Amino acid sequence: MTRQEKILQVALRVIAAVFCFGLYPLTILWPAGFMWEPRQSEYEQMILLMLAVMGIFLFLAARDPAKHRFFIWFTIWSSMAHGLLMGVQALLDPTERMNLIGDIPALLIVGVVLLVLTKLADTATPA
Q: Per the UniProt record, which residue ranges are transmembrane (predicted)?
């Protein structure tokens, strides 16, 4: 396994941990940056659970990222699409502007970090 693949593994595990254990506390500690109005607990629980499940599968994908590229690419594109759509919505709705420094950049960072690390791992040559 190349150094780039090992770095990708670490990133996948960190993102998985945040998706599984970090998002709910962020909604409590900083609701303006990680929640949307109007508040609806069913919707919030659904999104948090979907991301926690994604986190579990990212953790599993970290065992052998090369075998799980399809899921990693799904995570990249779904995170960036979700973040970009929320960005447009936050720009159009003044009550959601705090999300421009909260969950929106967080999702975009996940997508960009995984994109860069996946590309680097794909082009790396074994030592």
A: 12-33, 45-63, 70-92, 104-121
